[in-house]
């Protein structure tokens, strides 16, 4: 097919981007793919246009059945293929990408992401500017509407939900100032390998839901900086997940809090959680998912035996306190759960109530 890149497409300048800058010598690329053959050619071509040599790229084929590995062996022999026979979500593949790379940095990517020609160089420059910066995060925009932001300025709500303040807004509104952030999607991240290994890599028990948020939060706990670089832009072909995600989102959210939050934080948040959980259960029940919530809580219970080990890791790496990492701001909730005007009004009122609660609670949490 003409849309698929060939080896000759990058033969003349294998380490120079279309923008004219050299590809960083200390960066490898790891692409996580699961039946993404339709989008993978475009993902690879974008990397080649960015000056990435093919032999710096590893595609981790997660139990694919669409012929990804065979296509790569035929069309891109210099691209390394690492096959995983079980689909246990993206995190095992991300860890393969980190641990089996040989350079200081690895760009973790999903196979439905296309980097703009200078994005990797911009992230690399930011990482080199300060030794405390261990992750460079681009602005993620909608592939179909590239002026519209999907993810930027992320943070972690104290109730353990995502905050994404720039979603559906324009790049111009976001502005050009780089900033440290508290959460970022792993669809494209430039990661310092040594730091990632130090915080315990991605949790392979998280099939989906908080699978990247947990890793980013532990990097923040360890005192590493996650730098969002607005001049680095990637295009993402996002799609809404099915209802099967609810189980993992609920289970992993609770496990995330139990393993990462300090004990005083959990005690202080108990009243808020005593309100939030019945509200969440009622909302899910109204959509026919009450049983999913109960199964997810049973899933949390099954993870409890490993909790002492999990919390030991968090204690070892902790350099920052919860009061400095968690925020209160409007939470991200799936559109199909807030489809009615009444529910949307209720959510706005609830966000305001949580904000007032956090201001009171944060004042009494342990400081540095």
Walk me through this protein's architecture:
The protein is α/β, with parallel strands linked by helices and 368 residues long. It has 13 helices and 13 strands. The chain has helices at 40-49, 68-75, 90-99, 119-129, 171-174, 193-198, 213-221, 245-260, 263-286, 290-303, 307-317, 322-325, 341-362; strands at residues 27-33, 57-62, 80-84, 105-110, 113-115, 133-142, 149-151, 155-157, 162-163, 179-180, 188-192, 225-236, 326-327. The strands form two sheets. Strands 1, 2, 3, 4, 5, 6, 7, 10, 11 and 12 form a ten-stranded mixed beta sheet that branches. It has a three-stranded mixed beta sheet with strand order 9-8-13. Helix 8 packs across helix 11 (307-317). The radius of gyration is 21 Å and the shape is globular.
What descriptive keywords fit this protein?
13 strands, 10-stranded mixed beta sheet, 368 residues
């Amino acid at each position: 097919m003409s849309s698929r890149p060939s080896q000759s497409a990058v033969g003349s300048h294998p380490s120079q981007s279309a923008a004219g800058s050299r590809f960083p010598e200390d960066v490898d690329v790891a692409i996580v793919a699961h039946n993404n053959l339709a989008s993978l050619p475009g993902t690879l071509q974008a990397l080649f246009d960015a000056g990435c040599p093919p032999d710096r790229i590893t595609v981790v084929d997660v139990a694919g059945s669409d012929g990804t590995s065979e296509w790569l062996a035929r069309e891109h022999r210099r691209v390394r293929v690492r096959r995983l026979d079980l689909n246990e979500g993206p995190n095992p593949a991300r860890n393969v990408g980190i641990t089996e790379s040989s350079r200081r940095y690895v760009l973790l990517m999903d196979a439905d992401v296309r980097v703009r020609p200078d994005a990797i160089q911009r992230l690399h420059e930011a990482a080199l500017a300060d030794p405390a910066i261990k992750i460079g995060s681009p602005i993620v925009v909608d592939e179909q509407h590239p002026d519209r932001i999907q993810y930027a300025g992320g943070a972690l709500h104290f109730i353990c939900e995502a905050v994404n303040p720039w979603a559906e807004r324009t790049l111009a509104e976001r502005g050009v100032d780089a900033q440290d952030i508290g959460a970022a999607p792993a669809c494209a991240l430039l990661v310092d390998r040594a730091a990632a290994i130090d915080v315990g890599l991605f949790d392979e028990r998280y099939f989906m839901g908080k699978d990247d948020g947990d890793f980013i939060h532990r990097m923040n706990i360890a005192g590493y900086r996650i730098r969002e670089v607005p001049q680095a832009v990637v295009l993402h072909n996002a799609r809404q997940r099915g209802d099967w995600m609810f189980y993992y989102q609920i289970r992993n959210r609770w496990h995330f809090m139990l393993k990462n939050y300090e004990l005083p934080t959990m005690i202080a948040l108990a009243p808020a959680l005593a309100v939030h959980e019945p509200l969440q259960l009622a909302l899910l029940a109204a959509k026919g998912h009450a049983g999913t919530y109960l199964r997810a809580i049973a899933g949390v219970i099954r993870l409890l035996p490993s909790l002492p080990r999990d919390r030991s890791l968090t204690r070892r790496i902790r350099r920052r306190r919860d009061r400095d990492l968690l925020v209160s701001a409007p939470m991200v909730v799936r559109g199909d759960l807030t489809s009615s005007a009444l529910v949307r009004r209720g959510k706005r009122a609830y966000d305001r109530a949580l904000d007032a609660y956090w201001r009171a609670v944060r004042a009494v949490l342990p400081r540095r």
